[in-house]
Amino acid sequence: METFITRAARLNGPYDIELIEKELVCGEDDVIVKNHLMGICGSDKSFYRGRLPLKTAEFRQDPSFPFMLGHESGGTVVAVGSRVSNFAVGDKVMAFGWNNNYADYFSSKEFQLQPAPEGLDMDLASLGEPLACAMHSGLHSNVQLGDFVVVMGAGFAGQVIAQCAKKKGAACVAVVDVLDGKLALAKKLGADVVINSSKQSAADEIFALTGGRGADVVVEAAGTAESYDLASTVLRHNGSFVFYSWVTEPITINISRWHDDGFNFINTCLVHHTWHERYVWCQAALRPVIQGLVDIKPLITNEFPLADIKKGFELADRDDEAIKIVFRP
Questions:
Q1: What is the spatial distance between Cα 103 and Cα 105, in angstroms, rounded to a whole number?
Q2: pLDDT value, residue 216
Q3: Are 262 and 232 in contact (CB under 8 A)?
Q4: Cβ contact 134:168 at 8 Å
């Protein structure tokens, strides 16, 4: 069995991340991938701050410290086990599993990988998981021609979803955030209205723009209690409430509106469906990116070598205007 020595990130506790040396052994049903690029997910930032979620089906390791961190990455297959049939050495792949991906190499099972689509730049293919998830959400958020759409959160996913909503024919796309830098980028990338909810009443602005009716579609991509409250407030009767972000702590919401106003709830999280569905959906989700219909490169705001993983996470913690921070091995 082939073995590989790699650096890999270990989160020892809140704000305590380091690279350790690991040996990876390619077992009979394993795939070893040499990383091209890795990205910091919003969930990684929460974990770094000490907010680990409860155990879910997605976690194949207990959500406790020390935690072997990382899931956003992609690269080239360098070894496959004897029972692997869907991948071969040299294949370009995207990671869709929590496999300690802040590393030079990572080990995965076949179902946790996705072929990189032909024609997709490897920098973007390495962000295939967050990119495909955001694109799938944008394409399946029930946005109709002429709709008023609100996107809560101008992070990586929110920026992608806002672009998709506009391309799908929304008459007006409003992006809500608390950071002017992110809102300025959203405006540059095509949002019609940007609202800083820390400086003005986003609800008042949205109701003014819609004649008191409320938004046809609200996409929650901020992951805060305040965002869920605002989304529940500004959505019109029988509107579509789109779940995207992962809220790792219990929150209080106005569930009465959800019931009495007959909201249509849509869970667009591609990665949280079965891998069989993801295998089919991923290619379609990324096609508009390959076609150049959605602009992704401006969302990669900071790059570090893997050796500077501490600096990268320190930046992610102190500068919320950094949208997608990436590392190269």
A1: 5
A2: 98
A3: no
A4: no
131: phi then psi, degrees, rounded to nearest 5 = -70, -45
Helices and strands per DSSP (H, E), number in the chain? 10, 16
pTM for the predicted model, two decimal places: 0.94
Contact 240, 141 (CB under 8 A): yes
Nearest to 41 by CA among 106, 150, 128: 128
The 8-class DSSP code of residue 101 comes to -
Q: Is 327 helix (H, G, I), strand (E, B) or coil?
A: strand
DSSP assignment string, 30-57: -EEEEEEEEE--HHHHHHHTT------T
Give how far Cα 123 sits from Cα of 35, 120, 148, 174, Å.
Answer: 11, 8, 33, 29
pLDDT in tens, 298-310: 999 999 999 999 9
**34, 70, 204, 244, 289 from 113: Cα distances, Å:** 13, 14, 44, 21, 19
Which residue has 């072997």 as its token pair? Answer: 68
Rg of the chain taking only CA atoms, in angstroms: 20
Other CB atoms closer than 10 Å to residue 57's CB: what's the count? 6
| pLDDT value for 121 | 95
Positive or negative, the Cα torsion across 105, 109, 112, 113?
A: positive
**Maximum distance among all Cα pairs of the chain, rounded to whole angstroms:** 66
For residue 113, the model assigns a pLDDT of 97
- What is the pLDDT at residue 56? 67
* Intervals of the chain under pLDDT 50: none
Residues 60 and 101: beta-carbon distance below 8 Å: no
- Residue 225, judged by CB atoms within 10 A of its CB (0-12, 13-18, 19+), counts as middle
The answer to whether the CB of 309 falls within 8 A of the CB of 9 is yes
Separation of alpha carbons 151 and 172, rounded Å = 11
- The arrangement of strands across the sheet holding 67-68 comes to 16-25, 3-13, 67-68
